[in-house]
Structures are given as structure tokens and as C-alpha cells.
Specification:
The complex is a heterodimer of chains A (194) and B (199).
Chain A (H helix, E strand, L loop, with lengths): L4 H8 L2 H18 L3 H16 L5 H12 L5 H43 L4 H29 L3 H17 L3 H15 L7
Helix pairs in contact in A: 1-5, 2-3, 2-5, 4-5, 7-8
Chain B lengths: L1 H14 L4 H16 L5 H13 L4 H42 L5 H30 L5 H8 L3 H28 L5 H15 L1
Helix pairs in contact in B: 1-2, 1-4, 2-3, 2-4, 2-5, 3-4, 3-5
The chains are: A mainly alpha (194), B mainly alpha (199).
Chain lengths: 194, 199
């Protein structure tokens, strides 16, 4: 099976010009989308599949699945993988910088006043409320992921065991994570319905 | 030297950063507050809450904000580069291995399945870390050890944190109710506004 036409034609024609256009769309989505990586994916799809037709729907989904196997924020891994796939190194750099640059710029603008007013009681109250909201949000994410990703008892036991190791026995989270992944991959228990 | 250290800390966070922003929060707070003491747990929690409200990938925002808080703009760049170095390398590997000719779909599948229990536990750990910064929890052993029940322990936590627990629980209910139709950044902004009214 060869690569579908959309992507082959990009390889032969101007890779750099494509990379610049790709950078611009990723920059735009990164700058304008509130709600993190998961919220950005539908906007990427609209730009890449519907508007510019750089890839077919199927290629888009294939790239997304591959990006999920790479650690780090989903939006960045998606952009980088898509860039690699379509235009090699220039494409990967364009995708990576396109998503990351707006973040650095915004943080540079926001972080300074935030630190200057760190002891302002109004800011503290605002962040206390927002922080408690985030506790709810992350709990929701944990429940959602647990329901979607864990179906069998072995998988659940492994998750709980990892959590107990970190919290109860002060194992470094990263070491616990790597051990869990190795155990789960080696024994290849069917962890999910799909 | 500090920049190099930041880079290496975030390199570690990046290696384990499967599961997007929510999975990174626990690692960021663990490394910066618990292990290295650059920030307090509350500061780390505030930065993470701010990251959630800014546009763009939340994990990148959180890395940039905490890098900035520790070492200014160079710190932000060091943190982002550290966190994303494994991503850049593995993205190249993934494209070669998984999308090239003769790619191993079976391998992807196996890795995906193998990562799942770990990802869920990482996100659950983030919940624990973030809640610990906001909600004061007494040492569990002092309560559980003697009579073998956790009820008094739970009652103690509720007595200490009434309003804060209610807000966090309300947030959870709103997300459970609205699901993915609710934009998380806007919802968190709204909870910040509620915080202004209450605290």
C-alpha cells in the first residue's frame, strides 16, 4: 500500500512553502483555542482536512493514533507527527513551533504581572476557586479515562497498585509508571474492549 | 546551571507525559514542589490552574509558567524544551516505525494497551497532588491505624474543608453532567469568578 495522493504530491512540490503555511495554521489554532490539546484536535481537523485538504480523513485519524503513542501534550505530538509525515524535518519543525510559540508568548505576557501581584488577596481568591475547579476537572478526566481505557480486572488492579506505590510507598511516579507499562506490555493482557 | 537543571527535570516529566496535560500535572508538582522545593504545592497548583485558562496545550503552558516562576523567560524556554525533547525524538521514530511502509500496526496496538493502566494511574495521581495543595488532609495513619475504619478520617477532612470540598465536588458534577460539550478553560474561569465571590 502506497501513501495516498494528497501526501505524495506534497512531498514533491514546495515543501518549504507548505511548511510555512502549516506553521501559520498551527500557530492560529494554538493562539485561539481555549481548553488544551483535546479541544484543539477538532480545529486541526477543520484546517487540515476540510480547509486545506492536506490529508484525507483517514490519514488524519491515522496520524492522531500515532501521536497518542508519543509522550507529551497531544496537540504538540500531533502537529509534530503530521509535519514529519507530510514534509519531513521542515514540516516537523513548523508543526512543533507553530503550536508552542503562542504558548511561550502568552506565558511571557501573563507570568510577569501574575508574579508581581502574587500576594494580592483578590488574585489568591480567584486562583483558589480556579484551582478547586481544576481538581474537579482532573477528577472528571481520571474517571473518564478509567472508564474508557480499563475494562478488565487486571488493568484496574495494575492502576490501583501503581497509585498505592506512589502515594503509600513514595515510589517516584515516573519509575512506577515505567514499571506498570512494562508489566502491562509484557503480559499483554487484553485491557480494553477495542 | 539552574537552567540545565530545569531542562533535566522537565526532560523527566516529558518522558512520562503520556495522557496529555492531566497526566503531567502530578509529575510537575511532584518534581518542582516535593523533590526540589522550587515552589510550594499551592504555588504549583496556582500555576497549573492558570495554565488551564490560557489558550494552547495546557501541559506546555504549565511547563512555561513554572519555568518562568523559577528562572524567568530563559527558565520557561528551558522547561518547554526539556518537556518536549522526548516528544520530538519519539515523533520521528513513530513516523518511521508506524506510518512508513511495512509498518507494525500490531506493535502500536500492543504499546497502546500497555500504556493504559499507567496513564489512568498518572491522572489519578494528579488528582491527589492537586487536591493536596487545596484541601488539608491529616495524616491518615493517625486515624486508620487504631480502629480500622476510615469513616472518622473522612469526617475529619470534611470538617476541615467544608466550602472548598463543595466547590471541587460541584466542579466534578458540572463536568460529569456536561461532558465534553463544556469548554474546560471557560469553566475554570467561571470557578475562578466563584472563588472571588466566596474567598
Amino acid at each position: 500500500m502506497s501513501e495516498p495522493a494528497a501526501i505524495v504530491s506534497l512531498r514533491q512540490s514546495a515543501r518549504l512553502r507548505y511548511s510555512l503555511a502549516f506553521f501559520a495554521t498551527q500557530f492560529k489554532v494554538g493562539l485561539l483555542t481555549l481548553g488544551g490539546g483535546v479541544a484543539m484536535i477538532p480545529f486541526f481537523r477543520r484546517e487540515i482536512v476540510a480547509r486545506h485538504q492536506w490529508a484525507t480523513e483517514e490519514q488524519f485519524l491515522e496520524t492522531l493514533t500515532t501521536a497518542l503513542a508519543v509522550p507529551g501534550p497531544l496537540a504538540v505530538s500531533f502537529s509534530t507527527v503530521f509535519g514529519w509525515r507530510t514534509a519531513g524535518l521542515p514540516g516537523a519543525i513548523a508543526g512543533f513551533l507553530g503550536v508552542v510559540t503562542p504558548s511561550i508568548a502568552l506565558v511571557a505576557i501573563v507570568a510577569m504581572p501574575l508574579q508581581a501581584h502574587r500576594n494580592n488577596p483578590l488574585l489568591a481568591a480567584f486562583l483558589q476557586g480556579a484551582g478547586l475547579g481544576v481538581v474537579g476537572l482532573v477528577t472528571y478526566t481520571a474517571l473518564l479515562l478509567g472508564r474508557r481505557l480499563l475494562s478488565g480486572a487486571p488493568a484496574m488492579l495494575l492502576s490501583v497498585a501503581m497509585l498505592v506505590a506512589i502515594i503509600g510507598f513514595s515510589v517516584h511516579p515516573l519509575i512506577a509508571f515505567l514499571c506498570t507499562c512494562v508489566i502491562a506490555t509484557v503480559f499483554d493482557v487484553r485491557f480494553s474492549k477495542n | 546551571m539552574l537552567l540545565l537543571k530545569l531542562y533535566i527535570i522537565f526532560l523527566r516529566i516529558g518522558v512520562g507525559g503520556f495522557g496529555g496535560g492531566a497526566g503531567c500535572f502530578g509529575l510537575i508538582s511532584h518534581e518542582l514542589a516535593t523533590v526540589h522545593g522550587y515552589l510550594t504545592q499551592v504555588q504549583a497548583g496556582d500555576l497549573i490552574a492558570t495554565a488551564t485558562m490560557l489558550p494552547g496545550p495546557v501541559a506546555v503552558n504549565a511547563a512555561a509558567l513554572s519555568g518562568f516562576a523559577i528562572a524567568g523567560l530563559p527558565g520557561a524556554v528551558a522547561a518547554i524544551l526539556g518537556m518536549l525533547t522526548p516528544l520530538i525524538i519519539l515523533a520521528a521514530v513513530a513516523v518511521r516505525l508506524l506510518l512508513g511502509p511495512g509498518s507494525g500496526k500490531g506493535l502500536v496496538n500492543r504499546i497502546h494497551h500497555g500504556l493504559r493502566p499507567g496513564i489512568v494511574a498518572l491522572v489519578a495521581y494528579s488528582v491527589y497532588v492537586l487536591a493536596k495543595g487545596r484541601i488539608s488532609m491529616p495524616q491518615p495513619m493517625a486515624h486508620i491505624g487504631l480502629d480500622g475504619t476510615i469513616l472518622p478520617y473522612a469526617a475529619d477532612i470534611i470538617a476541615r474543608n467544608g466550602v472548598r470540598l463543595i466547590i471541587a465536588a460541584a466542579a466534578l458534577c458540572v463536568f460529569l453532567w456536561k461532558g465534553e460539550k463544556l469548554n474546560p478553560a471557560l469553566a475554570i474561569l467561571a470557578f475562578g469568578a466563584i472563588g472571588l465571590l466566596i474567598f
